[in-house]
Amino acid sequence: MQKIWHQITEHLIPVFRRRLSGVDALPQLAVLGLLSGLFTGGVILVFRLAIEWPLEHFLPGEGSESFEELDLLTRGILPLAGALGLGLLMHRLATHDRKVGIVHVMERLNYHQGYISMRSAMVQFISGVATVVSGQSAGREGPAVHLGAAFSSLMGQWMRLPNNSIRTLVACGCAAAISASFNTPISGVIFAMEVVMMEYTIAGFTPIILAAVSAAIVTQAVYGAEPAFSVPALTMNSLMEIPWILAIAVIIGIAAALFIQLVDTMGKHHHRPVLLRITIAGLLMVPFAIFIPETMGIGYDTVNETINGELAFWLLLGAGAAKLVITSLSIGLGMPSGVIGPTLFMGATLGGAMGLIGAQILPEHASSVGFYAMLGMGAMMGAVLQAPLAALMALMELTRNPNIILPGMLIITTSSLVTSEAFGKKSLFLTILKNQGLSYQNSPVIQALRRVSVGAIMDRSILRTERHLTVEEARKVLKSEPKWLVVEGSSGPTALLPAVDLARYLEDTEKLVADEEIEPPESIDLMDIPANRRDVAPVQYQATLEEALDQFDATNAEALYVQRHVAPMIQRVYGVVLKADIESYYQYRRS
């Protein structure tokens, strides 16, 4: 058994890593996608259990969302006590450890190649459970995406995979988390690519699809095959409803813009103490919890009741508006809440309210309240996240009804346009990143460079050699016919030398010695002979081409030697990369 494990670690895993350096390693990426999905599915099951178990035992009534049945005093104390506890937890953490949610995943992808720590995952798990259990206006999907991305990233880090593969694993974790949360594999895939990665690639689709499917299988084994909401058969009764659907799209687009603006405005107070901000968020939640308890927790019970037409107009309108206000204020103040669930709640209640108005205007043509509630969910999600395709796929998978596609496309694209063009709002996540002084680079060039590791294009024809050599040692060095010589210094490689330059020097020296013009040299100084030497700097084997270019800019080096830590204080050099190699690779791929 030990011999088999030795063969795997010494031969198979290094080959697996090397294949993953390139952009076309589909079989290897497929295996990673499956592992990520299974792993993430298990993590999301534990996360959901940690939320549902205490609520089912603590709350009166049936299910894990009956906050409405609590007495007034408990409803008021619970979110305030939860906010104080969360504030104290966040206060004890360093600033960089407080960051959670989808925004943090995007930051780690953009600035740290998808590396997410176990500490970050644990903080997200605890805060994600605490926000929902304490009755904050929160969702579980944002924390689930963070957890899926984090544990997939940790799996890649443990396997010491190239950074381009870790980025793909993060996307797999995001897709798997959405798939496991809603039982919607397709929307999970589109969400990961449209919202988090902001790119579509053929190589990326395969592992992300496999991750979403395997995660859905894991959760279906426990929760069954039904989607997150119980949706009756829905259809649009008449084309006469199109103008009203467009009107609803405008209203929801305005509501989404208001939501993003409130988050942005409150986010400008991020420099204030975190304990103060989260405590204020808890205080603000108290009157909402007392008078409109539907805003507490995830609120999927209210969404189901809306879809089934069980709620009155003023309750729908009040709950939707209240959810919009308190969620935006809480998130802006730093409450570690998920946002996807609240957007679905807002969309369903506001859409349902508009559906009831439509039924009064055109009673003979109007569709059911559930139909408008579902359209509202898709429209709000698409507008807030600026992800129309992910919203449409979610709408289709949740209803399992192709009749929703045409009106869904119309309302989602219109509401997204109203939010982005009429009010100039970017997606909520990009807005929060900007508020933190960060950006999200997603130009085609950068995306292309991030998909490939230096291991895919480095020149492996190298030989490490000391600076001072005898003539015999120099001949021995050239005998293996390397292309490059990496000249060692006192603290590592100091220069890169074309081997042909050393061969030319030896040939010229031999001629001069034969002509008795010079004495045979006792030693050769590789830093002194005529040669096209290049200054070098290190780059890690896992680095992407984007990181390599950043290293060129930071060090002004003319070449990078690719190294990996193989033992304490020992770095192995695998190859060299020139800036021209990166430019040639990109030009070749683009053509």
TrEMBL record:
PANTHER family: CHLORIDE CHANNEL PROTEIN CLC-E
Superkingdom as given in the UniProt entry: Bacteria
Species of origin: Marinobacter salsuginis
Protein name (database record): Chloride channel protein
Gene Ontology CC annotations of this record: chloride channel complex
CDD domains: Voltage_gated_ClC
Segments passing through the bilayer: 29-51, 72-90, 200-222, 242-262, 274-292, 312-332, 344-363, 369-392, 404-424
Topological category with respect to the lipid bilayer: Multi-pass membrane protein
GO molecular function: chloride channel activity
Any Pfam family: Voltage_CLC
Cited InterPro entries: Cl-channel_core, ClC, ClC-type_chloride_channel
Main location: membrane
Gene3D superfamilies named among the record's database cross-references: Clc chloride channel
Entry keyword set: Chloride, Chloride channel, Ion channel, Ion transport, Membrane, Transmembrane, Transmembrane helix, Transport
Location of the protein in the cell: Membrane
